[in-house]
Amino acid sequence: MKILGNKKAVMPIAIAAVLAFGQQPAGAQGLFDMLFGGGIRHNPQGEFPPPPRPRKMQPGTGGGGGVRISSPSYNTYRADRLVRIDFKSLLPAPQLATAQDAAFVPSVTGSAFRDALAGLSDYELFAEPDIAKALVAYYSANPDFIWVTGDAPNSRAQDAVRVLGEAASYGLTPADYSVDVPAATTAATPKERTKELVRFEMALSARVLRYAHDAQSGRVDPNRMTGYYDFPAKPLDLEGVLKTLAHTQEVRTYLESRHPQNPEYQALRVELESLEASEENEIVVDPKLLLKPGESSPELPKLLTLIARNLDDEMGGDYGEVLARLGKSEVYDPELVPVIKAVQKRAGMKGDGVVGPRTVASLAGTSKADKIQKVVAALEELRWLPSDLGSPRVFINQPAFTASYIDNGEEKLKTRAVIGKTTNQTAFFYNQIKQVDFHPYWGVPQSIIVNEMLPRLRSDPGYLDRAGYEVTDSRGKQIPSSAVDWGAYGANIPFSVRQQPSEANALGELKILFPNKHAIYMHDTPQKSFFERDMRALSHGCIRLQDPRGMAAAVLGTSVDYVAEKLKHGHSTENVARVIPVYVAYFTAWPDMSGKVEYFDDVYDRDSKLMQALDATEAVRTPSS
Predict the structure, then answer these.
(1) The pLDDT of residue 32
(2) Alpha-carbon distance values, 289 to 284, 305, 309, 313, 561 (Å)
(3) Tens digits of residue pLDDT in 455-500
(4) pLDDT at residue 149 greater than cutoff 80
(5) How far does the chain reach from its first CA to its final CA, in angstroms?
(6) What is the Cα–Cα distance from 487 to 225, expressed in whole angstroms?
(7) Is residue 46 exposed (0-12), middle (13-18) or buried (19+ Cβ within 10 Å)?
(8) In whole angstroms, what is the distance from residue 463 CA to residue 472 CA?
(9) For residues 180 and 171, is the Cβ–Cβ distance under 8 A?
C-alpha cells in the first residue's frame, strides 16, 4: 500500500446495569451473561482439568462431546465498489435548437450552470454509492458552482486542492483524493472550457466528500473486519458538507476540522512527520526473532553489537570480555545467557535469557517502516473513536497491557492489566462506565461452560455444587448441578452458572462494569503473579487490573479507603454518578501524556489485518480498477 509522502504537516490543534443477585428472571439468559459473563479462570494450574474421554451419546439426546463455542473470526475485507455517478437527472431537458441558441456562448456562472451541465452527458466519474447519491441530490437542489468562478477555479477550489494534497500528513493516501485541475490558460473553445470546468466541479466535490468521510470515520468499516471490533456509525451529512463549503471561504479550516480534534491525534501526526524525515535504523534485527540457549541465528551478532555499543562501566566490567570473544557468534552460547539476562532486567523485563520480540525491541527498537505502519494504523483507528475522547475517561490500551484513568489532561492512575489470550481476544470498542460491584458474583459465560466445564460435568455432574457455583434454569430457579443430565447438551445449554463471592472467586474482590455485548469488564483477580509478566495476554477476554481498588476509587470519585471500607461489608453495588467513557482500545503506537509516542507488540496481529483492509480499499479506489 502506498502510504505516505513528505508533505509538511499542518497542525490545527441498553441497559443501565443495575444488578439484583437473587433469582434470575425468566428468559434472562442474555441479560445474565451480559451483566455477569466474560469471567476468567483463577487457578494457575487450571480450574478445570483436562476433559475425560467423551462418553458415547445416545441418539436424539442433543449432546456431542466435540461441540464448542467459537470466538469471532477475522474476515477478508471487501470494500464497497464504486459506482458511476448518474448525472441524467441534472441534465437540462432537450429543446429544439434555434438560430439564437446557436449563437449563444455559455457562461459558467450564475443561472448558466444548468447549461454547463450538458458537459456531463458522457462524463464517467466514479464514487462511493452514498457520495454519488449525495452529489446528485445537492446539485439538484443547489444548481450552482462551488469551485468555479468565471472561467477558472476559484480560491475556494485552490484551498481544497491543497488540503487534499496534504492527505499524507494524516496517514491518508493523496491519490485517493486527486483531481485534475484545469489549466489557467487554454486554447479550448468556450464550450470545451465549460465542459472542462463543470467536470472539475463534480470531481472535486466527489473527492472532497470522500476526504471528509475518511477524516471523520476512517477509510475502512472496522466492524466488517471482525466481530472483535464494535463501533457505532459516525453519520456524516454529505449534502450538508457541500452546503457548508459553498458558503464559506474557510475551506481549509472546515476540512481539517473533520479530523479527530484531540492531542493524541496531533501527537501521532507529529510522529509521522518526524519518521518520514528520519533515517532508517542502522542495525535492523528481525522483530520476531525467538532464540533460546544453544540455538543459532544470523540475527544474534547484530544484537550483540548493539549490546556492546551501549555497555556501561558495570556491565562492561562483567561482560565485556565475553562480548569481545563471542560478539560475532551466531550460536547462542551458554556464556552469553547472563549477558542477555542482565540486558533484559535493565529494560524492566523478566530476565529469563530467552531472546524474543520484546528483548529485540528493547535493544534494536522498531524499524522505521514498522513504526510508520503502526502510526498509520493508529491514526486510522483513532478516527473510529469520538473526536473528543472525554474527561474524565478510562483508557485501556491492550498492546501496552495498561489501564489508565485520565482527568483534565493528567493521568491520575495507571495500572498494569491482563487482557485476553490470542484464542480469547479482548474486543476493541468503547462504552460508558456504569457501576462497581464489591465482592461480585461471577456469571460464567456460555463459552466457558461449553468449552471447559461441560467435558467434566458429563462425568462429574455434581462438580459445580462442590466448587461453590450456582446453577439456575431458564425460569431462574436454582437447581443442583448434580440434578442436570449434562451429557444431553451440546453448544446450547439452557442453564446459567455463577460463582458465589469468595476468596477463590475468579473476579477477586471487585469488578467495574460498562455493559456491552462482549461481556467484558475490568476486575480484580486472585492471580497476582500474572502482573509480573511482560506479555500479559492471559485471560478469557476481560481486563484484570493490578490496582482494582485504585481504579474503583477513581471512577467513583472517592478514596481507596472508602473502597476498602465497602469491601468490609460483603457484596454490594454502587452506581457511577458521572459520565465516564471507557475505551477498550488497541493501539500499537500511542503517545504518553507528554506526547512521546511509544510502540508496542501487535499481540493479536491486528495491524496486518488493518493494512489488508486499507489495501483493499485503495485497490477499489484506484482508477484502473
Answers:
(1) 29
(2) 12, 16, 20, 28, 46
(3) 889 889 888 988 888 899 888 899 998 989 998 888 888 898 988 8
(4) yes
(5) 15
(6) 36
(7) exposed
(8) 15
(9) no
Taking residue 560's Cβ as centre, other Cβ atoms within 10 Å add up to 14
Beta strand 428-432 pairing with 229-230: parallel
pLDDT band at 624 (very low <50, low <70, confident <90, very high): low
For residue 166, the tally of other CB atoms under 10 A from its CB is 20
Closest CA to 402 of 521, 275, 546, 530: 546
pLDDT digits (tens, 9 = 90+) for 401-432: 999 999 999 999 999 999 999 999 999 999 99
In the chain, the amino acid numbered 616 is: A
DSSP 492: -
* Residue labelled with grid coordinates 487482557: 419
HEC secondary structure over 1-36: CCCCCCCCCCCCCCCCCCCCCCCCCCCCHHHHHHHH
pLDDT classification of 58: cutoffs 50, 70, 90:
very low
CA dihedral 355, 358, 359, 364 (to 10 degrees): 120
Residue 586 has pLDDT above 50, yes or no: yes
> Which contiguous run of DSSP H or E holds residue 394?
strand 393-397
* Cell digits of residue 256: 481539517
Q: Pick 413 or 107 by higher pLDDT.
A: 413
Q: Is the dihedral of CA 294, 299, 303, 305 positive or negative?
A: positive
pLDDT, one tens digit per residue, over 316-361 is 778 888 888 998 999 999 999 999 998 888 776 778 899 988 888 8
d(CA 215, CA 80): 17
Tell me the pairing of strands 83-84 and 126-127: antiparallel
